[in-house]
Request: fold
Amino acid sequence: MVKYIIALTLLSTLLVSKQPINPLLQKDCLDCHALHSIPSEMIYRRYLMKYSSKDIIKQKIFDYIKKPNQKDSIMPQQFFLKFKMKEYSLLSDKIIKERIDSFIIYYDVNERFFIPTSSLAQ
Reply:
C-alpha cells in the first residue's frame, strides 16, 4: 500500500511540474519581473483568459513590448499604481519573439501536464 502511495505521489509530481526555465528568458525578462515583484504567471493567465489563442497572445505581448503603454496593456489601471510602466525594449524583434515563446512554454498550463518517457519505461 505504501508503495502505491509513493508511486502515485511521484507520478502526480511529474505530471504537474513546470518545464525548465530558459536561462535567456530569465536574464532578459524574468529577472526584471522579479526585481520589481511583477507577477509573471498572473499576467500570462490574464492574456490567456482574454485571448485564449497562443498566436494572438504572442502578438499582443510582442506589441506591448515594442510600444509599452497603459492603453494597450492587458493589466488594469490599478496595476500601474503599484508597478512601473515597462521601459522600451532594446532587444531585436527576433529575440523578443523567442523570449515570448519561452515565456509561454514556461507558464502555459498545457505544458505542465507531461509525463517524461523515461518514467514510462519503469
